[in-house]
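As agreed, record minuted below.
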Amino acid sequence: MSEAARRLYDELRALERRARAARRAAGAVSSRREAAKALARAPYMVTVHAQRFSDWLPDDPARAHVPMAADSDKVLAIVRLWSVWAGEPPPDRRYWNNLIDAAQPARLPGETTGKGPARGRPISRWDPFDLGVHRAIEHGENPQPPPLAALPRYVRRGHDAELRDLLDPCRGSVMAVLVGGSSTGKTRACYEAVKDIRYLSGWQIVHPADGGELDELLAGNVASRSLLWLNETRLYLEGEHGPSIASRLRRLLTDDRRLVVVLGSMWPKYWQTFTAQPEEGAPDRHAQIRELLKISRVHKVDVPDDFSLATDAERAELDSLSVVDPRLATALRTAGPSMRIIQVLAGGEMLVDRYEHIFGPHGRALITAAMDARRLGHREPLPATLLEQAVSGYLTPAQRAVGGGWFASALADATETVRGIHALEPNRIAPGMGPPDSYGLHDYLDQYARGARGNARLPAEAWDALADHAVGADDRDLLAAAAELRYLFQYAVRLAQPAAEAGNISAMCRLGALLYEAGHREAGERRLRQAVEAGNGWAVGRLVTWLKQAGREDEMEPVVRGAAERGHAQSIAALASRLRDTGRSHEADDWLKRLRQAAEAGDREAMLWWTATLRWSDHPEYENWLLRGAEAGIREAIVSMSDRKMWTRDDPAVESVLRQAADRGDGTALRMLHRLLVGKGREPEVNQMWTGAARGGSAYAMRVLGARLLHAGENDGAERWLCRAARAGDGDAMCVWAGLLARAGDDENVEHWLRRAAEADNDTAVTLGPMWIAGGEHRQDAREALRTVVETGDSRISLLSRVAFGPVTERWLREVAEAGGTSAMKDLTLQLERAGRHTESERWLRHSIEAGVPKSDRRLWFLLQHLGRAQEAQRLQRFGIEVGGRTSDPW
């Protein structure tokens, strides 16, 4: 009998003993035969023969048969009955379901479960490298004997304990997402946890190849005791299948009939992208993903970038293991004070050094082309034809003057194996055996490029190569989105066209909108109608807008009605509004009744739009539905609660909902709960709340907690949390940290942290940087400002008027802008405009647009209007720009 089966047996026997004792004390019959009779009547209505009790609960636990998962309803009925007999509260159905699921015997590979065959295999039959674990560097001396294991020795750290705790079966279904930089050990931590936890040893580990396969799997029947391995989770959530996958994962995790585990990993940048609210007026592309990541069964596990915060015990174990594993010894020695040991083990630091200092111009250009293609959205291995065509755009005319064989030579550099690692991984897309025809970029180089080349512009040769050779409909749509963001509309059309023809709905919408705005209205409308027929809500709204603008209002209602009949919640609300406006109130009420029923059944979209209809009519139930929506994790409901200042209400339900949202890391809920607790004089609970959120990995909470501790004079704790927030990428925390360094007299490092904060778009740092560099009185002013930042714990202070726009300021803004700081880029263009240097400002704005800096297009539009070039401003909006920044001619 397994440990889990024995636990289920013991729990049932203990409950039975309590029930029979209570019945005997009341003078009632308590036999199992009597229990079987009671179960056959209301409210239980199940048939459980007395022999079944003997099979499941014999006196000798060694003879017990584990109840099958199919009998879980009968077991739960027994538990409910015995709880009534014992005079105990109703049992926790989820807890007992988890006990039953965990007790099930391990399936053999290939056994059928539920409606379909098991899709996966136990962890013991998986090669860790097939699951995404990075290969480690090879040790040059290749000691014999003994040969080294495939994986280096493993040192457990704090996040390993956190992950193992989450995988306790009594927690129920769970999704754990390990969040950390590239090559920090996220996937290895998952592998080690599943390998070490005994009750998971027989589970089926399913590793879908892509989003389409995962979506298909989730649409079918995921068996209980399945573990979905979603390494690089963002690759599944991006693209056409992302919203569907997120919605289905949410339903799977909250289905108490099955016990499943989902393990994922992603970089902090993507967690922030998926969980952040869109700017006002911008499309909410990640709504479903955001709601998935905020439900109570999804947990973020932060993985530190290095061993600098390791405990003494962890460092001692690392030193001990390095004696028996020379790869660890090499990594420990090479990493030095940075303690970036895992990055060295995975070869990442070495690859960056080879890219920056060792590769020749053609090899470096090849890697750069691969970096740019990957960061813009090409996730599949890059075809050799794409790379060969793109490379010339990264070379000078002299470097392009070469004979034959240059590409093979560059590939040889990029694919050279050094200590078991290479920058480009050879692949073959074409069927059958043969030479490589595509190449995958090493993960660490990908992350490096997103920082070093975050806002770098691509040459025309690279865009042409992507348009001609990019593979995969989802990847082409992501690339088209990148081109559209940069106002390169012609490239966006070239990239989206094949994706739309392959059935990618997002590409249909994108292509339709671009063609329509460029004057190709028939073709644009045709594409958008395809998306409408496929059930896309955004396409419904855009098509209705176009029809209204074209005076074709008689065609609007059939479009909305068709979407409403397919169950699209927003269309139901819009149709009901139109029907009421045209005097058809009874039909409108019928549609609203349908919307309410869907909302009451838990449909999140229906809940969102039903609540919106109540707001429009100022209905008395509106705030109750806001609470229900917030409890369900609907972000818009939490924002509306803030707008209505509901934290001021003396209502326990408000506090309960805010606590749930705060536990999910919602910043708005944290701020409201803070105000509620302060307003009620419960100050000690405030720090507890922020501490919990900070320990949960919220960089924002780390900064707030650090500022509060700083204000309270607890400098050690304040500095620790502020440092962690700064290292996690919080620009405001970086600025406060710079202030602490200035206060401590560490002037040498102040500029470094101000620059990092400026590159993270902290406006105060953008302004203080040149003041600090200028020295003298300017530095003293900057020091005073930083003192204010430290004293208030808030870096958002107005400073723009305190520094003149001179050579030092301009040089600083240019350097930070060129390093990817969008706030510096905006300040630079604004200062140039104020100085009357419109030509330079326009050039930088066009640079910003091509670099993908948000809202640069609007500022260029206003500048062109101001300069009397209104027609060009209109052409910019309709036709975009060309590579290099020139406004496109009509196409």
